[in-house]
Design brief:
The protein is α/β, with parallel strands linked by helices and 290 residues long. It has helices at 20-29, 46-56, 88-114, 121-128, 135-144, 151-159, 174-183, 201-214, 228-240, 271-289; strands at 4-9, 34-37, 59-68, 76-81, 187-190, 218-223, 244-248, 263-264, 267-270.
């Protein structure tokens, strides 16, 4: 069995370009033994992915990635591992988050139109083929129509925080997201901590401590955006606060062409991260049923 896994991937259920089943097939082809699918604000891809994983002998952990309120220029995302796809709290919350996205996306499209860009909401929805419509789908339309050449250009010029058509979407607080993931039986994990854009280690540690008080259970140590020195710091934080270290590529298919499944830069993600999450979920469930 392969000693490597990927615990952070997106499918067409959110803003990836491969279907959940295709993501699982690629997991197999990439010689990984386990996968967590972590689409933004939705678990719509989980059932297909779990089914395909079973067929192909890939160990599968249901996941989700939730954006939280956080001051600019940073962003805070929380991953939820082992969430129960039948959880009512989770279903209601994801519907609400998708509603917030729809409002935001309409504002973005309107702003683009006012700036003379010929784009419609139905073109964006066609690019998304699903319920969760994200900025990468808007970027696809802008590329197809020749307004930009790359997804990055679309974010720099229009869609990113300093772009000319940027709008916030309604988001949960970090506390709210952590509580929701816990209520759905999952383990909340701080995704790609570099994206918080803290100025130094002490500031990062303060933020992490705060999240631990709310119920954080893990921290993403290995990620495509993390350099070697960052990984060492995050390992240290994980130990200090008794957090599960996790890792993933943040694969998005051709929406992020530089990211390959199972690879975080030149690093791979060790199987032991997956095993520790699964074992923690087991003990959690045992404790609850006693
Ligand atoms: P949304 O969920 O609609 O707010 O869009 C978030 C998605 O856009 C995530 O997949 C991000 O990784 C991606 N994203 C954010 N900023 C950029 C950027 N500057 N270049 C490319 N993708 C980005
Ligand atoms: Zn994404
Ligand atoms: Fe993220
Ligand atoms: Fe992600």
């Amino acid at each position: 069995m392969s000693n490597f896994v990927d615990l952070h991937c997106h499918s067409t259920a959110s803003d990836g370009t491969l279907s959940p089943r295709q993501v699982v097939r690629l997991t197999k082809e990439s010689n990984l033994s386990a996968l967590s699918l972590t689409d933004h604000d939705t678990i719509a891809g989980i059932a297909d992915a779990a089914d395909e994983a079973k067929k192909l002998g890939i160990d599968f952990l249901p996941g989700i990635e939730i954006s939280c309120q956080y001051p600019r220029p940073g962003t805070m995302h929380l991953l939820g591992y082992g969430i129960d796809p039948d959880s009512k709290v989770l279903r209601e919350m994801t519907q609400k988050l998708i509603g917030g996205r729809d409002e935001r996306n309409a504002k973005v499209v309107e702003a683009l139109q006012k700036q003379g860009v010929a784009i419609s909401m139905s073109e964006v929805e066609d690019a998304a083929h699903g319920e969760v419509v994200g900025r990468p789908h808007i970027a696809q339309v802008l590329m197809r129509k020749g307004y930009v050449n790359t997804v990055k250009q679309a974010f720099d010029k229009y869609l990113g925080q300093t772009g000319s058509a940027y709008f916030d979407k309604e988001q949960l607080t970090s506390r709210g997201a952590i509580e929701m993931i816990r209520a759905a039986g999952g383990i909340p994990v701080l995704a790609h901590p570099v994206q918080l854009r803290k100025e130094n280690f002490a500031q990062l540690e303060t933020e992490v401590k705060n999240l631990v008080d709310f119920g954080l259970g893990g921290i993403e140590v290995i990620h495509s955006d993390h350099r070697k020195a960052t990984i060492a710091e995050l390992e240290e934080l994980a130990k200090r606060y008794n957090l599960l270290p996790t890792g993933g590529s943040d694969f998005h298919g051709s929406n992020k062409p530089h990211i390959a499944m199972g690879m975080a830069g030149t690093r791979r993600i060790p199987r032991k991260y997956f095993d520790a999450i699964v074992s923690s979920l087991h003990s959690q469930r045992q404790a609850q049923s006693n």
